[in-house]
Design a protein that fits this description.
This protein is of the alpha/beta class. The chain contains eight helices and seven strands. The protein has one domain: NAD(P)-binding Rossmann-like Domain (Rossmann fold, 3-Layer(aba) Sandwich). Helix 2 packs across helix 8 and helix 4 runs parallel beside helix 5. Pfam families: adh_short_C2 (PF13561).
Amino acid sequence: MLNELFTLKGKRALITGSSRGIGRAIAMLYAEAGAHVIIHGSKPSAKLDEALAEARALGASAEAVSADIGDINAVKGLIQAVGDVDILVLNASMQHYQTVPDFDPETFALDVNANLRSCFLLLQGFLPGMQQRRFGRIISIGSVNQWRPGARLAIYASTKAAQFNLVLNCARAYAADGITANSISPGVIDTDRNAEALADPAIVEKLRSLVPARRFGSAMDCAGAALLLASPAGAYINGADIAIDGGMKL
């Protein structure tokens, strides 16, 4: 019974931004659950190669693709190259630590295009196939910042809030087609992406004070929720946002 509830056997899963961090943890757990995993990076890299090798070492069917999600033509090319998917994890994103007055239009566009436009394009590309097969799992990786925005992550937080709104739209519009759409909102997760910020003891102490659990999370903390939402165990969850933040949202 347990294996049947959490199996992804026979499913194709694209996890954007999965050469490292949260995306990589999700890809590896999906691989263990039996999915064909499509590991994505912004460009060819050693990390992308390592992630692919790790997935295959788990005995999984896997492939690697690269595309700059901030580039509209690259995203369209990614959709064509990948083909149909059953599970779409919208994980890749960009963030700049700046307050509103500090942002210039070019940097603003970088965040919006990478975090929101790319999600729209990927949904537009993969939803028709999901509708035809009457099965689909859409999981966006948001942020605690969409609920509790940090002053220096103003645009990142705004794009994540908009991304969740887009997911809610899909949850309502396509549920009758056998498609669910949900969000996971991580808090402070100890990944290489956050390594620079977490290298400062003063920042660490300040952030830890905001987390009722008084500790930071791991990438695998997020991966478990992503497996639930993609698997038969989570088939009746739709339009939800699961906070993986040790209570930071509270």
